[in-house]
Structures are given as C-alpha cells and as structure tokens.
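SECTION: protein entry
WANTED: fold as tokens:
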Amino acid sequence: MKNSIDARVEFSFKGEDYDLISHIDLDARSPERASCPSLHEVLARDHHIDTISYLYEVMLEAEIEFSNAQGLAADFFSDGHFDQAAFASHWQDHQIALLLQPIAKRELNIDDLTRQADIRNALVQAYKLGRGL
C-alpha cells in the first residue's frame, strides 16, 4: 500500500481567504532525498504560489492540518497531526530492512525479518553504522 496523506492549510492574505489542499505521496518524498521540498512548498507549488512572495511567507505561518493517512503514515497520524520525523525514521528503517531481507535469507536462512525483530534491528543498525547514518 502506498504511503500518502492529505495536507491542508488555511490562511488569509490581503483580504482573501485561502484553503489549500494537496494529496501528498510520501513514498515520492523519501527522506533520503536532500532536495525534497517542505510540505508548505508542495502546497505552494500545487496551487501556483511563488515561494518567493509575501503570500508564501504568510502561508508559512499557518499550521498544516492532515487527513486521510494511508499505509504506514496512518501509524503516525492522530487528530489532524502527522509526526513527519517519526514517519521518516520508520520509513527509512523499513526501506533498509527491505534491502537487507535477501541477505538475511541467504546468510541466516531467515525468510521474514519482521518475525525476528532483534536480528532485524541489529542488521538495520549495522547498515546505518556502515553508511554513517
């Protein structure tokens, strides 16, 4: 299942009310991409707002509300709030575990690392240590 969430920001600027909503594909925003734009930037781009404008600066002051969390994102969503940092950390560990699964099968004869949480965690930590993460 894809990891996604809807982001919404409401604000006023020069007497005009804005209510912007975007569907965010969190898999496309992998935490490993340094150039990944902020959610405010995504909302601005989706709604044709220049990120070098007063309108955008006002938008940055508004809190983003979240809804419709799908996939792993649902575990980090509660009452309109989304813990982006915790999701990113979990998502990254999940991606690392997917890379390590063939090694666990070949070297340790483990078919499913999710059933061996201690070994999975040790392998993920070793991977991170090797990558300097």
Remarks:
- The chain has four helices and five strands.
- The first strand starts at residue 4 and ends at 13.
- The CA atoms of residues 93 and 124 lie 7 Å apart.
- The mean pLDDT is 88.
